[in-house]
Amino acid sequence: MELVFEKINVTLGKKQILKDADVYAEHRRITGIIGPNGSGKSTLIKTLFGIVKYASGRILLDGKPVSEYGRSFVSQNIGYIGQETDCPFDFTVKEMVAMGLYPHAQKYKAASREQIISEALAQTGITELADRSFLSLSGGEKKNVMLTRAIAQKAETLVLDEPTNHLDIQHQLFILNFLREKQYTTLIVLHDLNYACMYCDRVFLLNQGSVAASGTPLEVLTAENVKNVFGVNGHAQADSSGSCRFYLDHL
Q1: 251 pLDDT band (50/70/90 cuts)?
Q2: d(CA 157, CA 166)
Q3: Stretch 149-155: mean pLDDT, rounded?
Q4: SS3 (DSSP) at 58
Q5: What SS3 class is residue 210?
Q6: Cα–Cα distance between 234 and 223 in angstroms, integer?
Q7: Start-to-end CA span in the chain (Å)
Q8: β-pair partners for 3
Q9: Which residues in 27-55 are b (16+ Cβ under 10 Å) and which e?
Q10: Which residues have a Cβ under 8 Å from the Cβ of 62 and sit 6 or more positions away?
Q11: CA 128, 130, 135: angle at the middle one, nearest 5?
Q12: Which of 174, 185, 170 lies closest to 147 in space, CA to CA?
């Protein structure tokens, strides 16, 4: 499903956080939202789920306003993985994954539910963790559980808010490679500009609540844009194999 944020404006207190922000995630492609701290990245995606209210603008799914679908449809078709993985209750991993089926409570019988959960655990390689306490897991394992829950949810579109934060490189690469391999419609907030270059088909660069640039990573992460928005010297460049990488220039 194509996801479109059209001229989104958000004001919190007396501060305008987002100003006519236009962002869209194309079907079966990875779209990145990048920008410095406080630029409105997380705020934007939270408007989709009503966590943050927007003053004006529209959010569309396949050309239709999200408000016309209803919350049930959104919860069935869009998986969300936030920055935090804290949980106040001591659920098992299997119970956490099963929560992904909650929006489809009336759709599946018990046997089908068990099969869906087992298949999701197998896809992310965490079957052996099924009976472990979620609270006992490492940060990377918890993020994998949240990804597995979204898979069990049968969501067509995934929205991820800085999913690689605080993870070791193995877990970071697992999540990003998984998203690329499975070809979900993916909207992902990233801080790491090299990962944005390596994995995103398109990126939207936010600065002070507005979209400063959009396009491929090569088109967006120019030396001028990087200097203006991040205040450092760097640029995206294709390496000898044609793959995009981000390079910090020597001071």
Answers
A1: low
A2: 24
A3: 89
A4: strand
A5: strand
A6: 6
A7: 43
A8: 25, 61
A9: eebbbbbbbeeebbbbbbbbbbbeebebe
A10: 1, 2
A11: 110
A12: 174
Q: What token pair was written down for 9? A: 């404006």
pTM attached to this predicted model: 0.91
Q: What band does 101 get if pLDDT is binned at 50, 70 and 90?
A: confident
Q: 248 to each of 31, 193, 232, 237, 238, how far by Cα in Å?
A: 22, 10, 8, 11, 14
User: pLDDT, tens digit, for every residue of 159-211?
Assistant: 999 988 878 898 899 999 999 999 999 999 999 999 999 999 999 999 999 99
The amino acid at residue 123 is Q
d(CA 37, CA 6): 22
- Phi, psi of 167, rounded to the nearest 5 degrees: -105, 150
